[in-house]
Amino acid sequence: MNKKQFKKEIAENAYNVGFGAKKHFASYDILTKLPNWISFTGLAIGIIQVAYAEFSNQKEISVLLIIISIAGLYINFSNKEINTYKKAGEELTQIYNKLRQLYLNVEASENEKFKDEKKELDNLLESYYNTSITKQIFLSQWYAHFKFFYEFQIDWLDKELHFKFWKDKFPNSLKWLVYFIIFITIVFIAINTLPNIYEYFRNL
């Protein structure tokens, strides 16, 4: 394996490690911040129901409160894992930084054989696999994309991997949601427009 190939291998693995770190921090942020927003939303809706009598008998509002309460129970159930996500994110960030240093060492090296560096890479990846938490919080993948691409120092990764805006910086599930919204919009426009077009040509 030559230097160019090895540098790209380091960058590809560092991307996985760095993104994994941000995904753990995203889960941590969701677990720490979302319960407060849920509590505030529930309180605000409750105040509205008390202040305005016309809302007190609205079933939709009651259903919304129930949904918010269930979401709050889910978040509280996962609350015990908060510090685990934070610790894993910090450890993965350290591994990411070591991979970056390894990349810079390889880049500055005049050697063409990287036996010791390859061994170091394998050890760092083993630490990555041992540290990562498989279970992540809902929507942490979306939030992690923002945290990784817009809050992280990834210029050296981009130099090797050439990230594209739509291809790499958008979560795949979010892409499908955008496609679905576009499809529904087109169907809606077609349903409301085609009869008028048909009527227009019929009257010509």
Account of the 3D structure:
There is one protein chain. With 204 residues, the chain is mostly helical. The chain folds into 2 domains: 3-162, no CATH class; 171-204. It contains 9 helices and no strands. Helix 1 (3-51) packs across helix 7 (155-161). The radius of gyration is 25 Å and the shape is flat.
Task: Note the main attributes of this structure.
2 domains; 0% strand; membrane
Lay out the secondary structure.
Layout: H1 3-51, H2 53-56, H3 59-77, H4 82-108, H5 115-131, H6 140-151, H7 155-161, H8 165-168, H9 172-202
Helix pairs in contact: 1-3, 1-4, 1-5, 1-6, 1-7, 4-5
Quickly describe the structure.
With 204 residues, the protein is mostly helical. The protein has helices at residues 3-51, 53-56, 59-77, 82-108, 115-131, 140-151, 155-161, 165-168, 172-202. Helices cover 83% and strands 0% of the residues.
